[in-house]
Design brief:
Helix content is 20%, strand content 21%. It has 36 helices and 73 strands. The strands form 16 sheets. Strands 6-7-8-10-9 form a 5-stranded antiparallel sheet. The two termini are 61 Å apart. Residues 131-425 form the Protein kinase domain.
Length: 1628
């Protein structure tokens, strides 16, 4: 009797892992195979590997019935090894399998080539000339060209010492004419035989021989074939057979192609089976040989044809029908269009037949097949049935690729072989034997008990026994073993145990220290004399204790005289203190230093212990070093000439510097504080390196100056002191700190430059004013002879504010305005070089007061001028103009007289009466000056803050200004208009992409480039810093536009529209995502990309910011992405999913409702999508013909409301009249408009500094009412501020609270004037709405105002008024009153009135206060009412209740028995004899247990012994996240399961979810975390950095650089012993 084996893995059944189980269809397999299949299945059902019948198994196969007939056979079967499948060899006997449970699946075994008799190991036609045909194989008619296949024998006669032998062969014979020459054919046959000799999985070809009128091709004979196997299995094969046969065929054809052979004969009947069940390819290459014998064609009217002797039409590739190109194949040199890819088509057709049991193109003639394949380019219609036969998606996609019309698109056989082998790995097989077996007993004969052996006898032959016990963490057993071993007389056993090394070269003490278990270490060192024993890397055990961060282990080793000052690596490596600093363990460092370790030790590279701790940002460890004698290290430079103090400045470590100043002596501080680094002293570094660390930099400067740092020290490259640097970067706070420390405001550097010089030259305007106020001397000259006046005037051509500073500096006593610099220039010379219109009137007057007279102004026609402010009576009169009038020069009469065009007409003026002003030119953006109350030419619809564009200037001096929505230009007096200041220095801007001509020239700039405003000139033109230009580019503000600025820390990627970045790819792609770590002054981005050694530079124009994604965001693939990072798979552009995980390398895992696994792509590939919300009404988008999840009896007209949203984004829609929920993919759903007729709306806030011009209400807040809703998403609105109605899209507006009759209102804060004037109302008036019109116009009854007041709702705001008896709470911004604090809860007792008008106050009674609180309603907010009978408890944040505990605590829950008028609650509890008085602000309501919803964190209840759908890999401690819920069943995601876990809702309970920022530690008592300890121990504490949607935690433990991945069941909160959430919301 054969041994009963699983037909999938061919491993013998047993009663444990390999228990035989029965599926519902009756087929049986072992537990291990079914478990692996279930793990890979997308749902809770399992398809039978044999018949594909589905069996519901839940979460585990344990629910399946056992196959007891097989179990009964196990005891009767011999104890022999399992019969494993082998690629070579055959069964030991030729008998057939007895039943379906033994060995391989039941089939008729194929015959193999007859074993060669003794003395005949191989045969060929030359040595075996006798060929006899026995019978014809097959009963059908002969094939094309009369081909027939016969069974025969090949033999040789005895003689000459050779024995007679006979071999069974298969013979394909083809009739040939008597005169046909076969010399060329024989040569080709021999080439074919030699080329295929060493190919695997092919039928051996022996050659060809002529017998009578036939040419016979001789090959090995096989009785079995894939075609016969399909007939036996009912027409098609199982998944296992498809994979195994497919791999064999792919391997064979791949090797034939490598040998230069194209098969052109792949079909099921030509795929034979050998004795071991392997598939072999036959008839390969014969078609090419037969073509030389005959060339008959199938009749066809089309140009395409097929050689009837060569191919089978059902398996022929398109290029073989219609020759397209000359083949280079050695066996096909007369055929056009045929290539190795043609075999891929045939293989695809063969796979279709193997999967479906149907012959491709069945029922069609050769002509019809040719038309479908060649002309219509169709695959076989049977291919559509492949998808539903249970094949993995990758396989049926591969079959589809084989059937591509273009041969170049078909996969190679090597790729197909990899695919088959990869899926064969998923076929369950037996697990490998364990490599480590602790004290395993040898197999003994049946009935013999193993002898009783002591533990000492077992460890004699196993010196690593102690290692195993240490790994298990059982200190008691370790202690017992060592005690028994120490009792041995010779002591050799204890030494062997303690000194033995495992495969990693570690002793047991090393392992105990690595585990961080002080109990194990103490147990071992009690018997080990040498605690400094080295492992194979020459590391003592204390190194592992330091890495584990266990101060107890370090203490135990130090107590046994461990060496702590010796250097590692034979004295050439670091000290133990260096190792401890490298791991950042402050407690361990404390133990080492207290034991005598040198805190100032220096390693071979010049690094002190403090260097390492500071460089790795281990603040606590560095402070311990300083507090234990390491202060002297702060002044020790390393090989890079940097001290730890310099490293503290570079890492902004204020805590270490502050502690060093506190504990170090004055001598130690003096030795270290002014040590120069390559870039200057610590003070210079602290003042300079300030990007995103302004706060830390200022604090460091304050500490260093207080400690005695030299303020005159200068940095190396620029010779700047700290004050120079602070002034240059315009840091006012830092300048104040330095000046308050007593530093001279006029301190000079090596070039005699003062901080004022630097600030004026760099445009640091804030610091200029501060320095001048601090007494900066404007007359000091630098090495070039320039004083502050020279520098300010010279830089004024770029920095307009410098002209204002000149005016202020001239006010100082004795300004040196006549001093010449080394070039001989005075202040006057610098100002003469500036355009005269830049010299404004106040500056000119101040200069004249100081004796500086500029040359007379030269006027030209079209110059803009205005009257000087000291002109009160012009020589020719005002002539209609005014003192503030501005005009342009119409003509020049002579040097003293001008004719100027004002908007009131022409006027004759003297040149001494006017000055030049900066003109307003066409295209400039302008607005009304603030001091203009009424424009000269009226308003015409625009408001004060309206922004327009200058269209032209009329000859009469009137400006024409265009506003959006206006039909023609608005006439304006230029004296009433000013240019809009749109930009500031430092703003990020983009050159308008449509710019073709620039006012100041295009130079080499590229439209669309992004840069930073470097400075603003006096005429408001901009100097723009671009990273690819060496000098700033001059432009007008209208030629650029605002862009979202880049910031340090932003994640960025290259735009999809950029084919080649300005600074080249450098190995990166569009999918590469990096983080900005620095930004140059011209906008150049310095980017850090993961896994890239060097930093990457980028032009900001080429980059785009990545949205800040988090788990739970709704996303879709960007429209600009041609293909995601890892391909589309089954995702499309309209697919919407939810982010489930974020990887450190920039990849994101997205859950789509139609996929069982996460879709991986780069964060650069996706963008956020508007999330759906429960309650929204949706329908299927009209563009969707077939929804992803099906129609489920619904139609495109069905409308429903979202009832629930699963974690994968599935929308569960409630349709009216339907009981069940309709599941719809979010990418297929479309929201209905959220607006209804009558809704009050306003425009959404605009983005950017420029106001929008919609609704013809420029610069004004407007509220409208929805009048009608269009199908296209547009809404028709009506508003009281304009006549008629207008359309706007629903995405541009948002709802606002409607105004209703009876509401109390007041004027909106900050309103200057209502739309229709005040009309007896005042800004503080209050009233009640008496009427509301359909367009939103309201009629208000104001107190003290007669009649109803007509108003625009945008001018009003609703004022909350509370009713008597309503419960209210003081808002967080409310003022404190007596004992009341924000959050206090009381009851409204009345409303305050002044005369007959409400004065805006509310009277509230609060418990514990005798007086009522009176205040504005704006300081109150409503709260839910407390009622008698409610269950309440004290809030967790309350330390001491107002009225005491009364023998209760936080866990006490009581019922409200009565409520006083001031809100005081009287609570009845079972533990209290009297009522417990409580302030309502101190309690919270105890709600009933909430229903478990999607997104909740849950665990199986302790009372559940076995869940309904079995445990699977889950247990009572497992914590997961609910992903889907339906009909009382939950699908839960656990971080260690690839598939969702199914259970009943009542079987689980909520737990407290982990969140980012939680302080956590490893759960005490945990044997081993799910993904290993890493370098952590029970003492490790960290912070949750990320949480995936399946609960997987990413934790940053202290002193670790890398994140630790953890199972939430292995983690607890650092301040909470448990995570179980009680129904009332508390955690127990």
């Amino acid at each position: 009797m054969r041994v009963p084996c699983c037909s999938l893995c061919n491993v013998r059944y047993d009663e444990e892992e390999r228990t035989p189980l029965l599926l519902h269809c009756g087929h049986g397999f072992c537990r291990a195979c079914l478990s692996r299949m279930l793990a890979a299945a997308p749902g809770a059902t399992l398809p039978c590997p044999r018949c594909r019948h589905l069996t519901a198994v839940g979460n585990s196969v344990s629910a399946l019935r056992k196959n007891f007939p097989i179990l009964s056979l196990l005891s009767a079967s011999p104890s022999s090894p399992s019969f494993l499948h082998s690629d070579s060899g055959s069964s030991s006997d030729g008998s057939e399998d007895e039943d379906d449970f033994f060995a391989r699946p039941s089939r008729r075994p194929a015959s193999v080539p007859a074993a060669a008799p003794p003395g005949c190991s191989s045969f060929d036609l030359a040595s075996h000339p006798d060929l006899k045909l026995a019978r014809r194989i097959g009963s059908g008619p002969p094939g094309p060209a009369g081909q027939e296949v016969w069974a025969g024998t090949l033999s040789r006669r005895g003689g000459g010492g050779a024995k007679r032998c006979k071999h069974q062969v298969a013979v394909k014979r083809v009739p040939v004419a008597a005169g046909d020459g076969l010399e060329g054919v024989q040569e080709e046959v021999e080439r074919l035989r030699r080329a295929s000799t060493w190919c695997r999985n092919v039928c051996t070809f022996h050659g060809a021989v002529r017998v009578g009128g036939h040419l016979c091709f001789v090959m090995d004979r096989y009785v079995g074939s894939v075609q016969a196997e399909m007939r036996q299995n009912g027409g098609r094969l199982t998944l296992e057979q498809i994979l195994r046969y497919g791999a064999d065929i792919a391997r064979g054809v791949a090797e034939l192609h490598a040998a230069g052979i194209v098969c052109m004969s792949i079909k099921p009947s030509n795929i034979l089976l050998d004795a071991s069940g392997h598939a072999v390819v036959s008839d390969y290459g014969l078609s090419a040989i037969l073509k030389n014998l005959t060339s008959r064609r199938v009749p066809d009217d089309s140009s395409a044809g097929i050689d009837a002797t060569l191919l089978s039409p059902n398996y022929t590739a398109p290029e073989a029908w219609g020759p397209l190109k000359k083949s280079l194949n050695m066996f096909w040199d007369s055929a056009n269009g045929v290539s190795p890819e043609s075999d891929a088509w045939s293989f695809g057709c063969t796979l279709v037949e193997m999967c479906t049991g149907a012959v491709p193109w069945a029922g069609l003639s050769a002509e019809e097949i040719c038309k479908s394949v060649v002309k219509e380019k169709k695959p076989p219609p049977q291919y559509s049935r492949v998808v539903g036969v249970g094949l993995p998606g990758e396989l049926w996609k591969m079959i589809g690729d084989c059937l591509q019309f273009r041969a170049s698109r078909r996969p190679s056989f090597q790729d197909m072989l990899k695919t088959f082998l990869r899926h064969l790995l998923d076929i369950p097989r037996s697990s490998p034997a364990s490599p480590e077996n602790d004290f395993a007993n040898e197999s003994l004969p049946n009935g013999i008990e193993p002898p009783t052996t002591s533990i000492l006898e077992m460890v004699h032959d196993n010196p690593n026994a102690l290692h195993h016990l240490v790994c298990e963490g059982d200190a008691a057993v370790v202690r017992d073993l060592l005690a028994k071993a120490a009792s041995e007389r010779n002591g050799s056993l204890i030494r062997s145990l303690l000194e033995a090394q495992n495969t990693d070269g570690h002793t047991a003490l090393h392992l105990a220290c690595r585990r961080g278990s002080a109990e194990l270490v103490e147990a071992i060192v009690a018997y080990q004399e040498n605690v400094d024993i080295l492992d194979k890397d020459d590391d003592p055990p204390i190194v592992f204790a330091l890495a584990a961060g266990s101060p107890q282990c370090v203490r135990a080793l130090v107590g046994r005289s461990a060496s702590i000052n010796s250097r590692l690596r034979e004295g050439l490596g670091p000290t133990l203190a260096h190792v401890c600093a490298h791991h950042g363990q402050p407690e361990c460092m404390q133990e080492l230093l207290m034991a005598g370790a040198d805190p100032n030790a220096v390693d071979g590279e010049g690094e002190s212990v403090l260097h390492i701790a500071v460089a790795r940002r281990y603040t606590d460890c560095a402070i311990v070093i300083l507090e234990n004698g390491g202060c002297r290290s702060m002044g020790i430079p390393n090989s890079h000439h940097k001290t730890p103090l310099h490293l503290c400045i570079e890492t902004w470590n204020t805590a270490v510097v502050r502690r060093w100043v506190e504990v170090a002596s004055l001598e130690e501080i003096a030795e270290a504080i002014d040590v120069p680094s390559p870039v200057g002293t610590a003070l210079c570094m602290a003042a300079a390196l300030k990007k995103d660390h302004e706060k830390e930099g200022r604090e460091l400067v304050r500490i260093l100056l207080a400690a005695g740092a030299d303020p005159t020290a200068q940095d190396d490259p620029h010779c700047r002191t700290a004050l120079h640097t602070a002034a240059m970067i315009d840091d006012v706070e830092l300048v104040k700190i330095i000046l308050e420390a007593g530093v001279d405001v006029n301190i000079r550097n090596a070039q005699n430059t003062t901080p004022l010089h630097v600030a004026l030259n760099r445009g640091a305007n804030s610091c200029v004013g501060l320095l001048l106020a601090a007494g900066a001397n404007c007359n000091i000259q630098d090495d070039d002879g320039d004083n502050a006046f020279h520098i300010a005037a010279d830089a004024a051509k770029m920095i307009r504010e410098n002209l204002t500073w000149i005016v202020q500096m001239l006010q100082q006593p004795s300004p040196a305005v006549d001093v010449r610099n080394h070039r001989g220039w005075t202040l006057r010379d610098f100002l003469e070089r500036l355009p005269r219109e830049w010299i404004y009137e106040e500056l000119m007057e101040t200069l004249e007061d100081k004796g500086v007279h500029l040359s007379p102004t030269i006027y030209e026609v079209a110059d803009w001028v205005k009257f000087r402010r000291n002109v009160t009576s012009p020589a020719f009169g005002w002539q209609g103009a005014g003192p503030r009038s501005i005009g342009f020069v119409q003509s020049i009469v002579d040097n003293d007289h001008l004719v100027v065009s004002f908007c009131t007409g022409e006027a004759r003026v003297l040149t001494s009466e006017v000055i030049k002003v900066i003109p307003l030119n066409r295209g400039q953006h302008v607005q009304l000056k603030p001091d203009v109350s009424e424009p000269r030419f009226g308003w015409r619809g625009q408001s004060r803050d309206s922004i327009g564009t200058v269209l032209c200037v009329d000859d009469d001096g009137i400006l024409r200004v265009g506003f959006p929505g206006a039909s023609r230009g608005w006439r304006a007096d230029p004296a009433e208009i000013e240019r809009v200041e749109e930009y500031k220095v430092g703003n990020w801007v983009r050159i308008r992409p449509s710019l073709t001509v620039a006012v100041h020239g295009m130079e080499s700039i590229t439209p669309g480039s992004v840069g930073i405003v470097y400075s603003i000139r006096p005429d408001s033109s901009l100097l723009l810093g671009l990273c690819y230009l060496s000098n700033p580019w001059l432009c007008e503000p209208e030629e650029v536009e605002h862009v979202d600025p880049f910031k340090i820390g932003d994640q960025v990627c290259v735009k999809r529209s950029v084919a080649e970045p300005r600074y080249a790819w450098g190995g990166e792609t569009h999918h590469s995502v990096g983080k900005i770590i620095d930004i140059e002054s011209d906008g150049l981005l310095i980017i850090d990309i993961p896994n890239r050694a060097l930093q990457w530079q980028a032009d900001p124009s080429d980059m785009e910011k990545i949205e800040n994604f988090k788990v739970g965001d709704w996303v879709r693939v960007k429209a600009t992405v041609p293909s995601p990072k890892y391909g589309w798979e089954d995702v499309t552009r309209n697919s919407i999913g939810i982010v489930h995980s974020l990887q450190d390398d920039g990849d994101v895992g997205i859950a789509f409702c139609f996929r069982s696994k996460l879709f991986l792509c780069s964060v650069a590939d996706v963008e956020k999508a508007q999330p759906f919300e429960v309650g929204e009404k949706v329908h299927v988008s009209p563009s969707i013909s077939q929804p992803r999840l099906g129609w489920l009896n619904e139609t495109a007209a069905t409308i429903g409301a979202i009832a629930r949203i699963d974690m994968d984004g599935t929308l569960n829609i409630k349709v009216s009249g339907r009981k069940s929920l309709w599941k719809v993919a979010p990418g297929d759903a479309e929201r209905l408009s959220a607006f209804e007729v009558g809704d009050w709306v306003r425009q959404k806030p605009s983005i950017g500094s420029r106001p929008t011009y919609d609704w013809n209400s420029i610069g004004k807040i407007s509220i409208a009412v929805v009048h009608s809703i269009q199908d296209s998403g547009y809404l028709e609105l009506a508003g009281c501020f304009r006549n008629g109605k207008w359309l706007t899209h629903n995405t541009d507006i948002e709802k606002v609270e409607p105004f209703k009759i009876g509401q109390h209102v007041r004027f909106r804060a900050g309103i200057s004037e209502p739309r229709w004037g005040w009309r007896d109302a005042k800004p503080d008036s209050r009233g009640i709405i008496a009427g509301v019109h359909a367009d939103g116009e309201v009629r208000v009854a104001f107190f003290g105002v007669p009649g109803l007041w007509r108003g625009d709702p945008a001018d009003l705001e609703i004022e909350k008024i509370f009713e008597v008896g309503q419960w209210v709470r003081l808002r967080n911004d409310a003022d404190q009153w007596k004992s009341l604090r924000p959050g206090s809860i009381g009851v409204v007792h009345g409303v305050g009135y002044h005369g007959d008008a409400w004065d805006g106050t509310i009277h509230v009674a609060f418990c514990g206060e005798q007086e009522r609180w009176t205040g504005p309603s704006s300081q109150l907010e409503g709260v839910s009412k407390f009622v008698v009978g409610q269950r309440v408890r004290i809030r967790g944040c309350i330390r001491q209740p107002r009225f005491g505990w009364s023998n209760h605590n936080h866990s006490s829950i009581g019922t409200i028995s009565s409520i006083d008028a001031d809100g005081k609650l009287r609570i009845h509890t079972p533990a209290g004899a009297r009522a417990w008085l409580i302030d309502p602000a101190e309690v919270e309501k105890v709600e009933e247990e909430e229903e478990i919803c999607v997104g909740d964190w849950v665990k199986v209840k302790d009372s559940i012994a076995t869940p309904t759908y079995q445990w699977g890999d889950v247990n009572h401690t497992s914590i997961g996240v609910v992903h889907r819920a339906d009909d009382g069943e939950l699908w839960i995601a656990f971080c260690f399961c690839e598939r969702l876990w199914l259970c009943k809702a009542w079987e689980v309970e909520k737990v407290r979810p982990f969140r980012q920022g939680d302080r956590v530690r490893i759960r005490p008592g945990l044997v081993s975390p799910r993904w290993g300890w890493g370098m952590e121990t029970y003492a490790s504490k960290g912070e949750v950095i990320g949480v995936d949607a399946n609960g997987k935690l990413r934790i940053k433990f202290r002193w670790r650089d890398r994140l630790w991945i953890g199972d939430p069941a292995d983690i607890v909160l650092d301040d909470a012993p448990s995570l179980t959430e009680a129904p009332n919301g508390f955690f127990s």
